[in-house]
Amino acid sequence: MVRKTSRVVIACAAMGVVLPVSGAPVASAAPGVGEYVALGDSWAADASLTQATGEFAPLGCAQSRGSYAKQVAAALAVPVFRDATCGGAMTVNMTAPQQVPFGVNPPQFDRLTPSTDLVTLEIGGNDAKLAVTVQQRLTADPAVSPCLDTLVAGDVDQMSVNIAAAEHKVTASIEGIRQRAPRARILLLDYFEGVSTGPGCFPTVPISDADADWLGRKLIELNAMLARVAQATGVELVDTYSTSAGHDGCQPPGTRWVEGLVPWSSDPPGPAVPFHPNQLGADHQARRVLAVLGG
């Protein structure tokens, strides 16, 4: 979901050690899928350094070879699979190219065809500027609340304004998918619990308790918006949030499904993208997608 990925981080990805993917889900009972296209941002790409791949998109997109989309495609033995996901993507990048380190990711909709029969979409976090807010409001003083101080004034919560403004953009993205792939079954994913409501875990994640609680509530608000879009457009919502409690970035290695500030993961061991799913998180997303497809 990160809006910008530094060239230094992506350079590390280029040199990262490729490790085996563990915890791959078993095949679902879903009917045969002939052509699957994955769309979305870095939480759809499951942005990775140790498992970064340029097979489907420029290496600068930081796609993980263990991402949920790739796991779903493998579990369903999909004959034609295209992964357009890219770190930093916004809804505008469905129809416009995205400049990334080491290349340009073409408009994500370019991967859709009239024969596409399955599409997963995870988008909206960057449009709402939630991801970049997390990174820009880190603090060395647990007594201050830069998120609340800069984004909430009186009755106006700028993040709520951003989320509301993103709603029609996500809706338009789904309409664009239908125009290009009228046969496709469309699954819209929300974002699982990377940050929870209530007190944070300063200094492990250097965000004050007040800001951590606010961010947790904004994530719920973002997911509620995505649920409204799914209902209004008639697509299927993949709820990854409600089943992810207790796996946020404050939890210890082996329990957390998203990394905190320290750019190191134990799942798999090696450098990681802060505030993004690790392999355990990607496995969770894959299980939830397959559960919906098999339902």
From TrEMBL:
Residues 38-282 form the SGNH hydrolase-type esterase domain. Its EC number is 3.1.-.-. SUPFAM superfamilies: SGNH hydrolase. InterPro entries: SEST-like (IPR037460), SGNH_hydro (IPR013830), SGNH_hydro_sf (IPR036514). The keyword Signal applies. Residues 1-23 form the signal peptide. It holds the Pfam family Lipase_GDSL_2. This is SGNH/GDSL hydrolase family protein. It comes from Nocardia suismassiliense.
